[in-house]
Amino acid sequence: MSKPIIMVVDDEIDVANAIANTLKDANLYEVITVYSAKEALDQLGKHKTFLGLGGNKIKLIFLDIKMPGMDGLQLLDNIRKNYGEDIGVAMLTAWEDEEKWDKATSGFVINYIKKPFKSEDLLATAKNFFEGREARMVLDTFEKHIEKQEEFRKKQ
Question: What is the pLDDT of residues 10-20, one digit of tens each?
């Protein structure tokens, strides 16, 4: 049986490679590493399947928010419009503000991981996603979003 495919999208090459290596070291996933939204869209296009109602061989994406050109939130919007909600997306960011949280959670992300990341957070995200806990993960992330809204409001 083939391994599920995860794509890592981050313009910081060292960070992208560190994330990819963490996932590869688990020896459970095939990992594609790209360094821009354009490369990510190219890979999604290459891995599109035409069986049944369509879909993609890439099942999970770890996606940086702050990138030049098309940022991660714009890419998330593009993925949802063109590939639906079948692809799990976990946002990675060093930036944490209310607007980004709002946009990310409205895109049904399965996690919002703060940089510097912890290897166990990446691996737990992938494990839970591939064990079929996606719906619970989306709800958990939305609940975290509600808590963050309170934090942001208190800071104002």
Answer: 999 999 999 99
